[in-house]
Amino acid sequence: MSALPPCPNCNSEYTYEDGLMLICPECAHEWSAAASAETVSDDKVIKDSVGNTLQDGDTITVIKDLKVKGSSLVVKVGTKVKGIRLVDGDHDIDCKIDGIGAMKLKSEFVRKV
After folding, report:
1. Is residue 95's pLDDT more than 90?
2. Which residues pair with 81 in a beta bridge?
3. Contact at 8 Å (CB) between 95 and 54?
């Protein structure tokens, strides 16, 4: 079998090379072989304040009082947050906190439960 990556569009395993491009015969999607090698190693690992790896759906605990920008609300130490989503950016956790609503948090201020 070939060591070519599957099609990013339809996940077909029957991709083939044509010069510098990879082509899927099932959906006719074309992409650069160099770009496909970069995306494999581009996975970013997000860790909490003590070094545990975070994943989508994890439950976390806030380890520091956090002021909510634009209001007088404060997220207190020990607040549990269930069902987080990891996103790209400076604030890498997207979540919903009871009594406050949707928020974005930095992973350095939370701990995995």
Report:
1. yes
2. 60
3. no
